[in-house]
Design goal:
CATH topology of the largest domain: Immunoglobulin-like
CATH superfamily of the largest domain: Immunoglobulins
Number of helices: 3
CATH class of the largest domain: Mainly Beta
Shape: rod-shaped
Largest sheet: 4 strands, antiparallel
Strand order of the largest sheet: 7-6-10-11
Helix content: 25-40%
Number of strands: 11
CATH architecture of the largest domain: Sandwich
Strand content: 35-45%
């Protein structure tokens, strides 16, 4: 093929260039998508570990009373998960309806030391708020109390006096 007296190598060069561009674009897309996939996979694995841990170690309030005349909160807390929960210093927090902290205690103040809580077992908290902190529970009030284990496992409930 001649074009103004010259032989054309241009179509061959054009095809080679198009093939090189196609391979380069395909490689770039492959690199990008593999990084996106790796990032997504890592995020999913981390979420799965957190979800699994939260279902394996879970506390639940199975019984509670708030007695305004004695200023005592009694709660029965159960491990409803499938793994043992390590004991240690347990933190109890009493809050009003607005979420303001009224009293905070550790197990040294409110209950005996707990080494661990086996699955399907429970422990009882008898918290004398008045004796420990000078706070009197008011009649016909709703309070929220929160129990936090040393490893961050938390449960909460409300009770009305």
């Amino acid at each position: 093929m001649t074009f103004l007296g010259r032989k054309g190598i241009t179509p061959i060069i054009a095809i080679v260039l198009l093939l090189m561009i196609t391979v380069a674009v395909a490689g770039s897309v492959n690199f990008f998508l593999s990084r996106v996939q790796t990032s997504a996979q890592t995020d999913i694995e981390d979420s799965t570990v957190q979800i699994t841990a939260s279902t394996q170690q879970r506390l639940e309030v199975i019984f509670k009373t708030c007695n305004a005349s004695g200023d005592v909160i009694t709660a029965r807390i159960s491990n409803v998960g499938t793994k043992r929960i390590a004991g240690g210093e347990i933190t109890l927090t009493l809050k009003d309806n607005n979420g303001n902290d009224l009293a905070i205690a550790t197990n040294a103040d409110a209950l005996d030391s707990i080494n661990f809580v086996e699955p399907d077992s429970s422990f009882t908290i008898d918290w004398n708020v008045s004796a420990d902190f000078g706070y009197d529970l008011l009649t016909d009030q709703t309070y929220k109390f929160e129990v936090r284990m040393p490893n961050g496992i938390t449960t909460s409930s409300t009770c009305t006096t």
